[in-house]
Write a structure and sequence with these properties.
Layout (H helix, E strand, L loop, with lengths): L1 E4 L1 H13 L7 H11 L7 E2 L7 H15 L6 E3 L25 H15 L3 E4 L2 E4 L3 H10 L4 E2 H8 L4 E3 L6 H16 L3 H7 E2 L9 E2 L5 H5 L12 E3 L10 E2 L1 H8 L8 H11 L1 E6 L5 H9 L4 E8 L6 H4 L1 E7 L5 E7 L1 H10 L5 E7 L6 H5 L12 E7 L2 E4 L5 E8 L6 H7 L4 E4 L4 H7 E2 L5 H16 L20 E2 L2 H19 L4 H8 L1 H4 L5 H12 L2
Enzyme class: hydrolase
Keywords: Hydrolase
Pfam family, one: AAA_5
């Protein structure tokens, strides 16, 4: 089944941009075009037509059509057909005298001219990379203290995109797919996202429609005078750059409730390829859930798990000498294998099966002391001589059928040595709070807990200024009842007062002003009366 962004959402996005107080200059959206193509400080892009392949030209034209095309896929564009959203207010068409298919070469001229006065790019013979201060320049000269609504930006950019679904999506599902598509499409990193966009898409969801908006309906929103009237012709077959489809396979993948995290399959595939991964993230993002998924994936014949802590030692992990008494009552020195060495030897005896070793709280232990000389064996293929033979074992190497998963809380500051010791030997997968899961699966009357946690985390970032102090979704997940995650308000009140608030007190070093800012003055007091708590919570977070 095919679905599109509703006509109402597209027209609302036009209204939004007409009222957005940003500079109408084309440089802002040419920057977004460059990000779409992949520009960075080190990766260059060019708009020199002679340097582009036909495939690149088609991709550039598609990007321009998505960003500002005033025509649909049933129309052939001629001139005066491209207007970026920041130009809606003043009807600033881009290169109105140039036919659409010839505009790429004019972009080069525009950027070179603008870049001379307000330099955003390093220009090496028309190969452009970003200057290190591009953010400050764009904020000062073009955004003028504003950010772009992600919801309206998405509705506009994907207005002509066809989405294939196996079933009719509701607004939450449709918007979840759109959000993942738009973030992937423009390659906006997390740092740039914070100053470029207002992350409002989960608060202003986008409705699916079975009909697509027409180019004429978009043009009718603007009062063009005769000289600016777009020139288009009807066609029976659209050009390749006018076709944008998200397949059923892609929408199914994006519908998975993984938030901004890799899918379960991607994590398993990474482990099987790299053999050693570390799952990182703030408390509550689901590291234990992922290790359980790996254990229960059916890939591994046996799993062993250990939790590192300050007193965990080489003797616990690799092995040690012990004193025992023999039959003649004589004291003798013997050795015993540690947990890891024992598991390594077990895996070696069963080469036909895979074995999984899980190290919880990896960074809580002293890595150098726990691994000792055997840390070199994490570079697969290395064999090291043990400092002393243990149960007759003189050397250690890790077999190819043994896989290692570590977990690590990034809010724990004890990670500096970890980075030096084993960073290059593991694939690090950073997990983020999963707002999608809370919005879709966790019920607290009519509250959207995904949006509420997002608000709290945004306030934490603004107040405490540390991305490692945000909260994971497990703070808002109740015990499961059957197939459902349902809170009653009494249980939720207790969770909020006795789990979430103490965490914020610790993170803020008991700064009451910071806590007031994050959850509101009334809730910061730890209200015990259920009715008063509900009123205060609704007043603070019902959006």
């Amino acid at each position: 089944m095919n679905y599109y962004i509703s006509k109402e959402n597209v027209l609302n996005s036009i209204d939004y941009f007409e009222n957005l107080q940003v500079d109408p200059d084309s440089s802002l959206f040419l920057f977004l075009l460059s990000k779409r193509i992949g520009i960075s400080h080190s990766f260059p892009v060019t708009y020199k037509s002679g340097s582009l392949s036909e495939e690149q030209k088609t991709d550039y034209l598609k990007s321009l059509w998505m960003l500002g095309g005033l025509f649909d896929s049933t129309e052939k564009p001629k001139s005066k057909v491209l207007m970026f959203p920041n130009g809606f207010r003043k009807l600033e068409l881009y290169q109105p005298a140039t036919e659409f298919t010839r505009i790429i070469g004019r972009i080069k001229d525009t950027i070179e001219k603008k870049n001379f006065n307000i330099p955003i790019y390093e220009d090496n013979n028309s190969n452009l990379t970003l200057k290190h201060n591009y953010q400050e320049i764009l904020e000062e000269y073009y955004l003028k203290g504003n950010r772009i609504s992600l919801s309206h930006f998405t509705a506009w950019v994907l207005r002509f995109t066809r989405f294939e679904f196996e079933h009719e999506p509701n607004e939450k599902e449709f918007t979840r797919v759109l959000e993942k598509v738009i973030k992937k499409l423009f390659k906006i990193n997390k740092k740039d996202f914070l100053w470029l966009f207002d992350d409002d898409i989960s608060f202003n969801r986008i409705a699916p429609s079975k009909t697509i908006i027409k180019g004429s309906e978009i043009r009718d929103k603007f009062e063009f005078d005769t000289k600016k009237q777009p020139e288009v012709e009807s066609i029976s077959t659209s050009e390749e750059y006018q076709q944008n489809l998200l397949t059923k396979e892609e929408t199914t993948q994006y519908l998975a409730l993984s938030g901004d995290n890799p899918s379960d399959k991607e994590i398993l595939d990474t482990l099987l390829y790299k053999k050693q991964i570390v799952l990182t993230g703030v408390p509550g993002v689901g590291k234990s859930r992922y290790t359980n998924l790996l254990k229960n994936s059916g890939e591994f014949a046996e799993t062993e798990m250990v939790q590192f802590h300050a007193n965990y030692s080489y003797e616990d992990f690799i092995g040690s000498e012990t004193l025992t008494v023999n039959d003649q009552n004589a004291t003798i020195v013997s050795t015993q294998k540690g947990l890891f060495l024992d598991f390594v030897e077990k895996a070696k005896q069963d080469k036909n099966n895979k074995y999984l070793f899980v190290i919880d709280e990896l960074n809580r232990g002293n890595i150098a002391e726990i691994f000792g000389e055997t840390i070199l064996t994490l570079d697969r293929g290395y064999s090291v001589k043990l400092s002393r033979p243990i149960k007759g074992i003189k050397e250690l190497n890790i077999p190819d059928n043994l896989y290692i998963v570590g977990t690590m809380n990034t809010s724990d500051r004890n990670i500096a040595f970890l980075d030096l010791a084993i960073r290059r030997r593991f694939a690090f997968i950073n997990l983020l709070p999963n707002y999608d899961f809370l919005s879709e699966k966790v019920i607290l009357e009519d509250f959207d807990l995904g949006n509420i946690l997002k608000i709290i985390n945004q306030r934490i970032l603004e107040t405490l200024g540390d991305s490692e102090l945000i909260l994971g979704q497990s703070y808002f997940i109740p015990n499961k009842t059957g197939d459902d995650f349902i809170w009653n308000f009494e249980e939720f009140k207790n969770q909020f007062n006795f789990v979430l608030l103490p965490t914020l007190v610790e993170y803020s070093f008991n700064d009451i002003n910071a806590i007031n800012t994050i959850v509101g003055e009334n809730l910061a007091d730890g209200i015990q009366d259920i009715d008063e708590f509900k009123i205060a919570f609704q007043a603070e977070f019902q959006v």
